[in-house]
Amino acid sequence: MSEASAFLLSPQPRARWMRLDTAQLLKRFFFCERSLLISEAAWIPVIAPLEIKTSVARFIWQNAETAHALRNRVFELRFPSRLLEEQGADHALIELFSAVKDSPSVPAFLLSIGKVLLPALRDSYQAYLEASDSIADGPTHRFLSLAVSEKMEQLSAFDQWAQAALSENAELGEGAIAWTQAVANRLAEVGGVGVAPSPSAATAGPLPGTKIYAVPVQPARDPRFWPCRFYWPDVVDPTYPYGEGMQLQLRSAISHLNEVWAIEAGGVILSAFADVLPWEWIHNSARWTYDESRHCRMGYERLLAWGLDPAEIPLGTYIYESASSADPGEVPIDLLGMLYFFETKNIRHKPARAQLFHTYGDSLSEHDMDFDWADETIHAGYGKRWLKELLAIRGQDPAAYDQIRERCEGLVSNYVTTATSREISDIKRAAGALSTKARALQRSL
Questions:
Q1: Pair 286, 41: CB distance under 8 Å
Q2: Residue of 36, 28, 107, 39 whose CA lies nearest to 73
Q3: What crossing angle do the helices spanning 118-131 and 19-42 adopt, rounded to 10°?
Q4: With 0-12 CB in 10 A as exposed, 13-18 as middle and 19+ as buried, what is 15?
Q5: What is the DSSP string of 89-151?
Q6: φ and ψ at 361, to 5 degrees?
Q7: Are 96 and 190 in contact, with CB atoms under 8 Å apart?
Q8: Residue partners of 76: CB distance under 8 A and separation at least 6
Q9: What is the pTM assigned to this prediction?
Q10: Containing H/E element for 314?
Q11: Alpha carbon separation from 375 to 292, 325, 347 (Å, rounded)
């Protein structure tokens, strides 16, 4: 201790950042996570492979949980709440994270996230954990350590997906690499994410190669499955029985798999209303989207466990297209209404079907239906709440949310009438073939 000092001094690196310094950095991380997950959500219906759709939904939920924890921690640090709504000096950085929504192709989207944005976040979180105070800022250390491990998994997945997409779409490779380099260059220009003070870089305009995002009318489908619009005969033929016994087992698994439309709808509505509704909307809809991906995987896993071939399994599009093919300006709210319609339409059947599966000794179908029922109870609440909020913002009567539900029921009914006789015979043939194969598999056990 210096003789000239009249005070006890002990310079230590853990005192590097004061409370508001810490809050500013965590706010930056929050906005990066928020922008990234919004961009990811928008692309779910554009990407074909089922594994990527379901995994991106899970990553969106992980990112939303990290963002939620960051946001709460900023408030705990007594940061002025009004400033959390402003990107401030980090505006150019956040604009870049948002810009990947306008990627020119699927390979470009996957590559720019896997090679640029995710590594930037991972490295910044690791740098923060190394430089910050694990005592004073212990709560941040807990959730940010988890975020680092999640980013490592995400980075690995995006890298694999990008390489596969490039190998399958060689003609897009040069553009995807150029786009990724442009994203990397812009990230360097704005100072990166990091833990240093922001350089307050000005937004430099659209990236070269930008293709303005538009909600797809037709969702991409995994080519491994049997492509169709209507995935089971009872959708287009009211005389076709829903079925019991093995037929009910098959029908329920096919229905779960085809909740892929709900993952896509969840991604679109999350992105579309992110700047209209408050943060809680993004947090709720990220969970909703993830839940739907779990339901989709439930059906897929059951069908595979029974020994069925994806090439024989119908993967349809009609529910998504019922909303996307109507009024172009109303597609996002119609997709939200469609989710609400189907959540409230089917929820009453779930406990009875779970009980039937119990009597069959099919514990896996019972288990999946039981958890599905609990999720849909939450989702019905989401749908009602946020439809009312959107109506209020539009200056309409919030109590009219059921009118949107009824409109969506009508959209589905109208779309089903477009089924051709060929489509109806084809789906009946596919369902019959699946039933025949399932009976053969059952006899061989």
A1: yes
A2: 28
A3: 160
A4: exposed
A5: GGHHHHHHHHHGGG-SSHHHHHHHIIIIIHHHHHHHHHHHHHHS-TTTTHHHHHHHHHHHHHH
A6: 80, 15
A7: yes
A8: 139
A9: 0.94
A10: strand 314-315
A11: 9, 28, 10
The number of helices, as runs of H, and strands, as runs of E, in the chain is 17, 2
Take residue 258 and report the two structure tokens written for it: 């085809």
What tens-digit pLDDT sequence spans the chain (445 residues)?
455 678 877 777 776 766 778 888 999 999 999 999 999 999 999 999 999 999 999 999 999 999 999 999 999 988 776 666 676 778 999 999 999 999 999 999 999 999 999 999 999 999 999 988 888 889 999 999 999 999 999 999 999 999 999 999 999 999 999 999 999 999 999 999 998 887 766 777 899 999 999 999 999 999 999 999 999 999 999 999 988 999 999 999 999 999 999 999 999 999 999 999 999 999 999 999 999 999 999 999 999 999 999 999 999 999 999 999 988 889 999 999 999 999 898 888 899 999 999 999 999 999 999 999 999 999 999 999 999 999 999 999 999 999 999 999 999 999 999 999 999 999 999 999 999 999 998 877 6
With CA atoms as reference, report the closest residue to 344 among 400, 384, 285, 371: 384
- Spatial separation of the C-alpha atoms in residues 379 and 289, rounded to whole Å: 10
Q: Could you tell me the maximum CA-CA distance found in the chain, to the nearest angstrom? A: 96
Amino acid, res. 226: W
E strand or H helix at 315: strand 314-315
Measure Cα distances from 316 to 34, 49, 86, 235 in Å.
31, 14, 42, 11
How far is residue 271's CA from residue 276's CA, in Å, rounded to a whole number? 10
The structure tokens listed for 24 are 């500013």
User: Whose CA is closest to 331, among 65, 54, 42?
Assistant: 42
Cα–Cα distance between 303 and 348 in angstroms, integer?
24
- The tokens for 196 are 């240093």
Beta carbons of 60 and 37 less than 8 angstroms apart: yes
